[in-house]
Please model this.
Amino acid sequence: MNKSTQENLLYLSSTFSKLLKRRFGKGPETCNMMSKGNRLYIYIRNYITPAEEVLLENNEVNLVHNFRSTVINAVIKEFIPEVSKVFGESIDYFFHDWNYHSNTGLILLENVPSKDEVKIDRDFERTLFHLIDEVGTRYHKRPASLEIVKFTQNICAIETKDVLLPLESLAYEKGNLDMLLHQARGIKSGYLKKKSLFEDLFNRTIEDIFIVWDYQRNRNYLIFVFYKEYQ
Model:
């Protein structure tokens, strides 16, 4: 498509919102697309359905997650050919994470191998990685490596590799997803409790924190979404 990147992202945002509405019967209030190299980030606001609200009121978080994952996975598979057509590349993996308390979500679509190059101040990078280590190791295994794969005024995404404990890897192999979901919520809750430390370092207000997990390849993405005024 002979269009600018911004035009392509607006087109994809509209397409994805329509797919969500068709599958769920409800579209998001906002659906913001951000791209970098081989990754497409989709940030969704105000999207909980009435049925999910009832389940959440009864603390059935796993049921909400399983329901939403089933439908979202179908939507993304339908959406991927459109992304590939627009950007001329295949999509190899996709992941998503949801913050039900703030009614927001983050979807990540990825093509491999990575072509991302992020220019970052090395002192800042070391300080950020040190803070992630200080906060994160209270809740999960220390990763073997960290890499900033996107950093703008709107978002910072860090890929971490070799993040699973042997028990977590075994749980994934055995299909014990409920245990992994419980563990993932606890880890993210730990980061949210320390949000002010990251805000001081970034010198920005953090609107959301997401962690998308790739259990098959033993990695995750820690994603900070910074607050901005919405028109």
